């Protein structure tokens, strides 16, 4: 089979790889579409020591079962999936918070991912979906579920209902875009999204219908937002988030671009700001997101761009250079 393999920093190549065989309890999916995630870009840049050259990346996927070694999972059925492969027995899994599983592994990191024609996966990680759900909706389940989980987690800490809040989203990639679309669906009127890429700013204004700004050209107002989502996670955006949030407000940290940086703990304390971290989603979030996608909560998918898997290297390079307006580029084997 053909697979897009991470061969060295700044390079992926379309190579031949052995056809996967399903272990007991697993299926092999014929991949129909797979999205390029920010973490895939991080690996492509050579900044993720967990993802080493020779690996097939990709964990945002939809496909049909090609072969099955799991009872009840029939060939031809379409699924998306949870790329986090969890143990099901640790305290977090038992609490329904399997995104925090102490024994988790991950598609596209500890095992071959979905930038390929076929991929094996434990059947327990499959997420059921309407069989007629459009592929472009299904393939964004994973990033949309990340936004879904982050927004829902934040609402526990907000003093006022979310639709009353003035909200800032930092970063207009897939997480920022899906978060903004979800916030608009909830009824947030005072929404601003920051994005360095001018092409993306135009796309956000068109598809979300909110204000945008270039944080490199115009400073954000200080202490102006009740709720801030940092969908980038760089040192600079962490500083921006804490400066932009009001006293008593909430900052939700989603992005993981930089591993560590200092934050203004004095302002965090004196202004009684709630700083929250979030990691991916639970299985319940994924299922709820599939339902939301089917209902059109995340728009018409015109903000998603499709390309052939064979053009993967060009897609990574275009994202790196900011040549694409799309919040999400999807590769089709």
SSE blueprint and pairings:
Elements: E1 2-8, E2 11-16, E3 26-35, H1 38-44, E4 55-56, E5 60-68, E6 78-81, E7 84-85, H2 91-94, E8 105-106, E9 118-122, E10 126-127, H3 135-138, H4 141-155, E11 166-170, H5 174-186, E12 190-194, H6 198-208, E13 211-213, E14 225-230, H7 235-244, E15 245-253, H8 265-270, E16 274-277, H9 283-294, E17 304-308, H10 312-321, E18 328-332
Parallel strand pairs: 11-12, 11-14, 12-13, 14-15, 15-16, 17-18
Antiparallel strand pairs: 1-2, 1-4, 3-5, 3-9, 3-18, 5-6, 6-10, 7-8
Overview of this structure, please?
The chain has 333 residues and is α/β, with parallel strands linked by helices. The chain folds into two domains: 2-140 and 301-332, Medium-chain alcohol dehydrogenases, catalytic domain (Quinone Oxidoreductase, Chain A, domain 1), CATH 3.90.180; 144-277, Rossmann fold, CATH 3.40.50. The chain has ten helices and 18 strands. Helix 4 (141-155) crosses helix 5 (174-186) and helix 4 packs across helix 9. The longest helix is centred in the middle third of the chain and has 15 residues, at 141-155. The chain starts with a strand and ends with a strand.
